[in-house]
Amino acid sequence: MSSEKPNWKRHLTKALVILLIFMVCLAILQWFIIQALFGFGTKMVMEAMVRQAPEGVNRDDIIMTFERVKGRAQQLPFSFIAGKINLRKVKNAGDFAIAANTDESWTAEEINALLSLLNASVGYKQ
Prior knowledge:
single chain; mainly alpha; elongated
């Protein structure tokens, strides 16, 4: 009887190790997917804003702001832990962008306000 107990414990240990390796691989895969989605989303919004930007908005400021946000987002979760990005402020900037773009056009004030919100979310002071 005593020889059976260690046998099932060994099988359980092997199963748990395999499950742990699978979970680590899944976490790494999710991290790459999240980075790709952040990169794709920032690029898409940046290109749309540059195209729709009216007079009075510096297009280079739009590009630099979105590059800052993209850089910090690609460093997640470490940039969040270190306090280099505030996800609540990024969410507020996204909510503002959705509300401001309901008519599918941007004014200079809306774009400048959105850029200042995004710069604040990554701790950049102008």
